[in-house]
Amino acid sequence: MHQDISEILFSEEHIKAKVQELGKQITEDFQGKHLLLLGTLKGAVPFIADLARAIDMPLELDYMAISSYGNSTQSSGIVRILKDLEGPIDNKHILIIEDIIDSGLTLSYLVDVIRRRNPLSLSICTLLYKERKRMKEVPVNYIGFTIPDKFVVGYGLDYAQYYRNLPYVGILKPSVYEGESEPEQQHASPAE
Ligand SMILES: O=P(O)(O)OC[C@H]1O[C@H](OP(=O)(O)OP(=O)(O)O)[C@H](O)[C@@H]1O
Ligand code: HPA
Ligand SMILES: [Mg+2]
């Protein structure tokens, strides 16, 4: 285990089994429909790559790069779209693939943007759903795991862009980020 991790919440094998389960359910639910998986860069990359291969039907993949955390463990409150979808979606069923729902700000912003484009339907799938009071509530269709209100990294999730390549999801030791300045204001790298 990486020295900056205090506890592994979900091992590689555990995640793999959950992804297979979600893929099977999504395959059943969207059979015969024109499905587009909308992945949120960067955090959802490992999840969408594995999930797409666990869905046994034709589908499209596209991505939006959305950022609000910067180098912080707290949302800046400002959600920015850094890359948009390639084309119209009014003839498609959209399934948003998120790595985590925390404050709810990213997802509620994204849902507003996508709804205005009139997809045939809009559903949401997240690997992790943090138990906390949310700033914005959005109904979620597929949840991998519910997690405690701790800052987690791995399997795509970062702190200051690091740890995304850990194969498991773990709790980051608070000592790594204690003393961080306000969101978007600092540029510290975590301990190696
Ligand atoms: O519910 P929220 O409090 O809005 O948090 C969830 C969002 O925050 C993270 O994105 P981040 O801004 O860190 O961008 P990244 O995916 O590039 O790391 C994460 O990947 C989710 O998209
Ligand atoms: O707990 C978290 N870890 C990493 N990125 C995040 N973005 C929102 N919450 C988190
Ligand atoms: Mg992030």
Automatic annotation (TrEMBL):
Names of required cofactors: Mg(2+)
Gene Ontology biological process terms from the UniProt entry: GMP salvage; guanine salvage; hypoxanthine metabolic process; IMP salvage; purine ribonucleoside salvage
A molecular function (GO) term: nucleotide binding
Pathway: Purine metabolism; IMP biosynthesis via salvage pathway; IMP from hypoxanthine: step 1/1; Purine metabolism; GMP biosynthesis via salvage pathway; GMP from guanine: step 1/1
Domain of life, per lineage: Bacteria
Enzyme class: transferase
Name of the featured protein: Hypoxanthine phosphoribosyltransferase
Organism: Ktedonospora formicarum
Taxonomic lineage from the root: Bacteria, Bacillati, Chloroflexota, Ktedonobacteria, Ktedonobacterales
